[in-house]
């Protein structure tokens, strides 16, 4: 078993572990965002109830509650933006995993000598290459979306 094959296999495992750790971190953050959403929603409901009972409270108190409500809305919008970024990252991780698997399959076909390849092998190799290009194009679209989003936020 050549050294380069072991190195390639080890690197593939390492990148898979890194993707798994990133996916776990993203999942944890999404759960935290969900909890924060619920908390903000509860705070917003309380503030709305206080504002609706307006005739009982002074104007400066209402202004303070309105400002708090606007702050909550801003915070929620920021969380929604972060959540959408994380969802794009999840899609990117899936495509990265898919690309890695296709790379390994393609490498196994490409390691075969051309004289030993059957027509089915050649057809499968071409199909894998086609799928790999589709995955790369999808990742490129995600990157372009992120860049457009970043530029629009600036």
Topology:
Blueprint: H1 3-52, H2 59-110, H3 119-153
Helix pairs in contact: 1-2, 2-3
Structure description:
This protein has helices at 3-52, 59-110, 119-153. It has 154 residues and is an all-alpha fold. The protein has one domain (3-153). It is elongated and about 90 Å long. The chain starts with a helix and ends with a helix. The mean pLDDT is 90.
Task: Explain briefly what this protein structure is.
With 154 residues, this protein is mostly helical. The chain contains 3 helices and no strands.
Give the tags.
154 residues; mainly alpha; monooxygenase; F-actin_Monoox_Mical; oxidoreductase
Q: What Rg do the Cα atoms give?
A: 25 Å
User: What does the average pLDDT come to?
Assistant: 90
Number of strands: 0
Low-confidence blocks of residues: none
Order of helices and strands: HHH
Content of β-strand: under 5%
Number of helical regions: 3
GO molecular function, one term: monooxygenase activity
Main location: membrane
Keywords: Coiled coil, Membrane, Monooxygenase, Oxidoreductase
Pfam families: bMERB_dom
